[in-house]
Amino acid sequence: MASPGIAINRKLFFQVICYLALIWFSWLMLLITIQYIPANSDVAFLRIKQDEIKQLHYQVAFFTHVYTCIFVLLIGLFQFSHYVRTHFSRIHRTLGKAYVSLVLLLAGPTGLIMGYYANGGLISQIAFCLLAVLWMVFTYKAFVFAREGNWMQHRNFMYRSYALTLSAISLRLFKWIIATVFELPPMDIYVIVAWAGWVVNLAVIEAIIHVRGTSRNLQTIGT
Fold this sequence. Notes:
Blueprint: H1 4-34, H2 50-53, H3 56-79, H4 82-87, H5 89-116, H6 122-148, H7 151-165, H8 167-181, H9 186-222
Helix pairs in contact: 1-3, 3-5, 5-6, 6-7, 6-9, 7-9, 8-9
């Protein structure tokens, strides 16, 4: 049986690896975002959305979504740090309010608009619209539970919310993996990752929440 010290070291090592991976992928997302600064309608993703980008409401939705999502992604990196929560609680609350405001007022609604115009037809459109709706619902519930002082549910719903935030990364990662391993038409791959990009994240975080809840219950019974 592993000693408690070894178990803690393994947990710390895993957390460090996860944070480093998130920082790396966040950096890549920042590089993608920079492509659209200043606002440019003939670069990267927008090259295949020339019909949509001519519409003013899509322009506003797209650039608002791109410019705000990078901040949501970066803010989330700090919100799950136990050190930040315990030593800089005021910063944690301020960043949390910024995260909630950005998702509910800007990133979420504009994501819903973009989802309506998603490539891949109805299947992809449903996937991205559902993603946007769940993102806003989970974020709002996390905010409500924080106001009520229910910190366990607040944390769980923030986990769910950030899992959906990370779909910006996982979608692109899954797309690269599928395109590398399988010879599928690009639009078929896009339809697959439209769902896999966030459903897999949500499944993983639900498993983590369940395991932690079970472990907490066992500890309670043991005492």
